[in-house]
Specification:
Order of helices and strands: EHEHEHEEHEEEEEHHEHHEEHHH
Strand order of the largest sheet: 3-2-1-4-11-6-12
Largest sheet: 7 strands, mixed
Number of helices: 11
Shape: globular
Structural class: alpha/beta
CATH architecture of the largest domain: Alpha-Beta Complex
Distance between the termini: 51 Å
CATH superfamily of the largest domain: Spore Coat Polysaccharide Biosynthesis Protein SpsA, Chain A
CATH topology of the largest domain: Spore Coat Polysaccharide Biosynthesis Protein SpsA, Chain A
Helix content: 40-55%
Radius of gyration: 18 Å
Number of domains: 2
């Protein structure tokens, strides 16, 4: 398989070790300034893995771009370090892309705590949020043959994409740092009429927020900032004006989530 897995990590040594054990591809790990011995573990236990070392946390988006620039594989497997791919799932996604030449990217069914976390998402441009497509949608609402048309974007939790397309569309916007960079990317991909969809017989297990849970209010702050960034960058001015009340109200919901998280942390 002409695939390189790119895995950003920040102080996630134990999870990363488990993640790597399940891979049978070339691997590039981008370490964002870990202080928990991650780099030392990689060099001693996995000497064949290429390690890109950043002196500080450069974020998920830049880390993926760094890896993408330094490899020559036909496909990139973008992977969170807290995501564990199930047996044969990489091969199934790879075969899906080989069979469907018009499909440029795919993801497995992502599980979290024995429930389907995502097979992709829709973007609600009226309010500026994503609606995750889960088990309810995939089993009850949509025939499998039509799921690709229903899904607006895929999750970078575990994403197999043709490298030339990733580079051509401009990779991830590094100003996002972390979170929602995949939503921004798939908005751009969607506008260019590229096709993509999930591989429904492939799966992975995701330890949701395993890294960000150690970083205080970081995720909540990023959600608020990056949704504003998505709206300004991707939505036409007349759309923003027309739907400003709902867009503004949803940002208040983001702010409310941030404030609640701050209160809980200090109780």
């Amino acid at each position: 398989m002409d695939i390189t897995a790119i895995i950003p990590t920040f102080n996630g040594k134990k999870l990363l070790d488990e993640c790597i054990k399940r891979l049978d591809t070339e691997i590039v790990v981008v370490d964002n300034g870990s202080t928990d011995g991650t780099v030392e573990m990689l060099l001693s236990k996995y000497p064949k893995i290429r390690v890109i070392k950043n002196s500080s946390n450069q974020g998920f988006a830049k880390a993926i771009n760094q890896g993408a620039r330094q490899v020559q594989s036909k496909y990139l497997l973008i992977l969170n370090n807290d995501c564990f791919i199930q047996k044969d799932s990489i091969a199934k996604m790879h075969n899906f892309l080989k069979r469907h030449k018009d499909i440029v990217a795919t993801q497995p069914v992502v599980y979290s705590r024995e429930r389907i976390e995502s097979i992709g998402y829709q973007v609600d441009t009226w309010v500026g949020k994503v609606n995750i497509v889960t088990q309810h949608h995939s089993q009850l609402s949509i025939p499998n043959s039509k799921i690709e048309r229903y899904i607006y974007g895929l999750s970078a939790t575990c994403l197999l994409i043709r490298r030339d397309i990733f580079l051509k569309v401009g990779m991830f916007d590094e100003s996002f740092h972390s979170y929602l960079e995949d939503v921004d990317f798939f908005i751009r991909l969607h506008k260019k009429d590229y096709q993509y969809g999930p591989t429904l017989d492939a799966s992975c297990r995701h330890i949701h927020m395993a890294t960000s849970s150690k970083m205080g209010l970081y995720k909540q702050k990023q959600d608020l900032k990056n949704w504003i960034r998505i709206i300004i960058k991707n939505f036409p001015p007349n759309h923003i004006i027309k739907h400003f009340p709902t867009l503004f109200f949803e940002r208040l919901r983001n702010l409310n989530g941030l404030l609640k998280a701050a209160i809980i942390r200090h109780v």
